Amino acid sequence: MPQLAFDIGFFAELPKIQPPVRKGVLDAWEKFNRLSLDQLFKDAGLKLESLTNPKDKQIRTIRIDQFWRGVVLAPTTGDTFVLLRVMQHDKAIAWARKQKSTINTVTRAVEIRDAATLDEITPAYERVAQASPKARLFEKFSDGDLSALGIDAETLRQARSLVDKEQLEVFAPLLPQDQREVLQYLAEGCTVEEVWQDIVAPALQAATQPVDTQDFETAIRHSRARIALVTASEELRDILEKPFAAWRVFLHPSQRKVAYRASYSGPAQVAGGPGTGKTVVALHRVKHLLGHLRDGDRILLTTYTNALVNALRAGLESLVEDPELRARVDISTVDGFASRVVAEVPDAVVLRPLQYNEEESRWAKAAEATGFDGSAQFLAQEYRHVVLAQDIRTIAAYEAADRRGRGSRLTAAERPLVWETVERFTADLAADGARTWLQTCAEAARLLAEKGPRYRHVVVDEAQDLHPAQWRLLRAAAPARPDDLFVAGDPHQRIYDSKVSLKSLGIKVTGRSVKLRKNYRSTQEILRWSTALLIGRPIAQLEDDGRNETLLGYRSALHGDGPAVHSATTEEAELDALVAQVKAWLDAGVGAGEIGVSARFKRTGSKAVARLKDAGIPAETLRTTDTAKEPTAVQVGTMHSFKGLEFRCVAVVGVTGEALPFPKAVTPPEVDAKQHETDLLSERCLLFVACTRARDSLYVSWSGEPSPFLREAGV
Ligand SMILES: Nc1ncnc2c1ncn2[C@@H]1O[C@H](COP(=O)(O)OP(=O)(O)OP(=O)(O)O)[C@@H](O)[C@H]1O
After folding, report:
1. For ligand 1, what atom is nearest to the CA of residue 516?
2. What is the Å distance from ligand 1's center to 92 Cα?
3. Mean predicted lDDT score pLDDT of the chain
4. Ligand 1 center to 208 CA (angstroms)
5. How many of the other CB atoms lie within 10 Å of CB of 455?
6. Residue 267, preceding peptide bond in cis (omega within 30° of 0)
7. Annotated binding residue at 55?
8. Which residues contact 71 (CB under 8 A, 6 or more apart)?
9. Burial of 570 (0-12, 13-18, 19+ CB in 10 A)
10. Closest CA to 112 of 16, 4, 223
């Protein structure tokens, strides 16, 4: 029976297509389902017409309505057709004539290229390359290596005509999709092996036969990253009517491979720079696990902040339709989960969670009581990074504790007094009916270790910021079995003081760790600019802090303007400029709720809200609840609170020398030299996180002296 499948290119254009035209698409789809092949080709309304002078006879057009045409891949064999684009009549015909469809002999997927334009421009580039003193872009790769990665003879000729990445960018939108990706990653500096491992291998289909380059029917089924087969009209109606979320349907092969792998023999990890779809993969993994859950089993989906919990909840709702199935997933912050565990103890005394800013004064008080003359900051860090991290409960254990990684000196003779001060601090807290969040996590981990696990699977997002006590809790939450932990995180976005190594916690992901490289959120221009903030800074891996992470090959297929930067003389002038920028975005048709304003401090954010409101622009402090409704006001928040979120347009304000790095957030080198470096890096990463929240537009401003991070990045 014939059917009409849908190409990702059609979905990308969907927001621009009006409802009556969408209805026409639905009608066409139904016709393909209803009619025989013979009837389809004869149908006068559909007009499944071949073109005059096409590059490919398999590309035809169909009539959607009086003015609109669909461009369809109509293979000469099989009965599956693919709707590639819906365009106005003349444009559709012109575009359709130029395209050519082929089957990639390595990935076995269908590829579409703009063959006419490529044929036209390649000779000119060849001439320029011959006259150029520059080496060819792909010189160091042999024809054999390129062919093994799926580059065919035509693309090879085109690739060989290029001398730099800018030229590749001109060719990229015209090239066959899988081959385009291979060339882009090689051009970014990835090795043949890396490209094979990360890009090609995930797309491979299990097949014993050599590929049949005429069998489009099979190749369409091998093209799940780009072609969707829709089986029910409700499903299609749903896609056409709701704002289309491509991530629900089209996963990159590297994403699909991680998310839908039948089973992992132990904990698994997905890493990758901002916007590479780690959260998307985590959600799809939950969907996969739900499909295999036994009676009574449950899943914990957890992350760092409440705003992210809401985003995960909304994401799961759109991915998993069945509410009963969704009800088998608990979505909460790690701290929230810990609170639930400790509250379940019979006769549990409710303890107030201590706010982070209360902690230091309490340490000072405890030190005064015991006569410890070191700083409160030292004590707070010793407690966090040694005592709680290693779950130390006795003086003997503390005296024997490994302090590697700490940059402050402490003699054996000094340890008893530090321990006495720790005991004083915890006793005073208990007497006041309070407890730090990390204490709650540590306590919950102990309880679970005694009582046994709660969940069959635990899926963790934003894993880079979790403290060892939180990891112990998550480790204890699920039995050590295949598929117990699935961890998504990016060490470049470590903005809280938790430099953890999964290896040191006994969570081994070696051989079950995958890195995503393609950014789906921001434009390449925004990425390049933001990534410069981190260049040359060693960032420890999440898996093993003895090794460093890289952003090699990290890239976006999207293009737009580079970030705008604005230097103001005073804070007032900077706020005026912010209002002007937000107005410009609104005038360009961006919704107020699609704009985010981020600052290092809450007080800067409050001023921005007030100033925007004075100018008649709806603005509010970032909402952490009720994500069911899309915001209709500009969202303003601290850089920390922007973690994991995204906006069409982002303004990062107050990026001054005094704010980034914020001196109070950076331990003085004389207290702890290593901590000093870690804190500085967190501040740098914080700016990186804020900037990488932007999809289309990024604006960065300061008054007076700009942050040295900007200067060092060449701004
Ligand atoms: N395969 C895909 N197709 C289309 N869009 C995608 C795909 N994967 C991810 N996206 C989109 O890219 C954006 C970033 O995805 P996501 O938030 O999962 O990335 P992330 O790696 O978790 O980011 P961060 O680490 O910065 O929080 C989202 O808008 C998401 O919908």
Report:
1. 21
2. 30
3. 92
4. 34
5. 22
6. no
7. no
8. 59, 60, 61, 83, 84, 85, 86, 87, 92, 95, 96, 99
9. exposed
10. 223
Q: pLDDT-based confidence at 626, cuts 50/70/90?
A: low
* DSSP state for residue 351 in the 8-state scheme: -
Q: Are 114 and 121 in contact (CB under 8 A)?
A: no
Q: Name the pLDDT band for 540 (thresholds 50, 70, 90).
A: confident
Apex 532 CA angle, 530 and 537, nearest 5: 115
Instruction: Label residue 232 by pLDDT band (50, 70, 90).
Output: confident
Task: Quick: pLDDT tens for 367-393.
Answer: 999 999 989 999 999 999 999 999 999
Provide DSSP, 650-695.
EEEE--BTTTSS-GGGS--TTT-HHHHHHHHHHHHHHHHHHHTTEE
Residue with structure tokens 């903030």? Answer: 533
Nearest to 681 by CA among 534, 554, 552, 549: 534
Measure the CA–CA gap between 425 and 417, rounded to whole angstroms.
12
Nearest CA to ligand 1 atom 5: 247
pLDDT band at 147 (very low <50, low <70, confident <90, very high): very high
Question: Beta strands 80-88 and 68-73: pairing type?
Answer: antiparallel
Ligand 1 atom at shortest distance from the alpha carbon of 282: 18
Q: Say if CB 161 and CB 175 are below 8 A apart.
A: no
pLDDT digits (tens, 9 = 90+) for 237-281: 888 877 668 888 888 888 988 999 999 999 999 999 999 999 999
Atom in ligand 1 nearest the alpha carbon of residue 280: 18
Tell me whether strands 227-228 and 3-7 are parallel, antiparallel or unpaired.
Answer: antiparallel
Q: Whose CA is nearest to atom 2 of ligand 1?
A: 247
At CA 597, angle to CA 595 and CA 600, rounded to 5?
160
